[in-house]
Amino acid sequence: MSPIIKRRSRGFGLIELMIALALSLIVVLGVAQIFIAAKNTYVSQNTAAGMQEDARFVLSKMIQEIRMVGMFGCLGTITDASSGGDFNPSQITPVSWDNSNLKLTLVTADIDSNGGTPTWTVLSDCRNSATAYTGVRAPASGQLAFPIRRLVYSFANNQLLMGTGSGTPTQAVLINNVSAFGVTFGVAASASDTAAAGYSANPADPALIRSVRLTLTLTDPSNRVRSQTFNVVAALRNRLL
């Protein structure tokens, strides 16, 4: 007759349960750390990409406008028939930087009339006469119309703003979270030189300006990424010919 072997059933002991719980907790904490790190990396990269996209939008817009500074049509001599007589001073100084009030003023041609109502319109037959009028002006037979805009960019309260028009135009916010904005000008040594010999924030002779250097610093208010500084240089095309 076979002997009957009695086996005692055993469960997990307290020590074994504590070890299992500890190991499970370590695994959960490791997975949580990986998830948190991945999330933080995603947020940081997304924030940095957003800052770069904002800077690219603003600076590309300003570069296009700076390149068209001083383009007033097909003739160099323009009669000022504007209502306030304000076209001629803007023609003489089409680009300027007010370092005290942090304002950049550009007087530039409006390509394809995409910029809305122009500040002035120059009508010219491109042979004998050119006249500047305030606002929109329809050309007569044999004339061409060149819309001209006066743009004022300013930096205040961590915002870059822009307004269009003569005098002190109403400004709208272009971009937020701006910690610094600066402008310097590439200045030629003489009127006959097309290349800039050096940079100055306030050149004595605006006619010697050949390029504009813009410096824009954006910051993240939540401090998820470091502040980023962007530098670009745009040439005044009509002064390089």
Essential attributes:
single chain; 241 residues; alpha+beta; 8-stranded mixed sheet; 4-stranded antiparallel sheet; 2 helices; 12 strands; elongated
Description:
The structure is a single chain. The chain is of the alpha+beta class and 241 residues long. 25% of the residues lie in helices and 33% in strands. The chain contains 2 helices and 12 strands. The strands form 2 sheets. Strands 1, 2, 3, 4, 5, 6, 7 and 8 form an 8-stranded mixed β-sheet that branches. Strands 10-9-11-12 form a 4-stranded antiparallel β-sheet, covered by helices on one side. A hairpin with a 4-residue loop joins strand 2 and strand 3. It is elongated and about 110 Å long.
Question: Helices, strands, pairings?
Answer:
Blueprint: H1 14-67, E1 79-80, H2 87-92, E2 95-98, E3 103-109, E4 120-124, E5 130-134, E6 144-156, E7 159-164, E8 171-176, E9 178-187, E10 198-200, E11 209-218, E12 228-235
Parallel strand pairs: 1-5
Antiparallel strand pairs: 2-3, 3-6, 4-5, 4-6, 6-7, 7-8, 9-10, 9-11, 11-12
Give the total of beta strands: 12
Order of helices and strands: HEHEEEEEEEEEEE
Structure classification? alpha+beta
Largest beta-sheet details: 8 strands, mixed
- What share of the residues lie within helices? 10-25%
User: Proportion of β residues?
Assistant: 25-35%
Low-pLDDT windows of residues = none
Global geometry? elongated
Instruction: Tell me the radius of gyration.
Output: 32 Å
- Secondary structure tally, helices: 2
Q: Oligomeric state of the chains?
A: single chain
Average pLDDT over all residues: 88
Q: What gap, in angstroms, lies between the N and C termini?
A: 117 Å
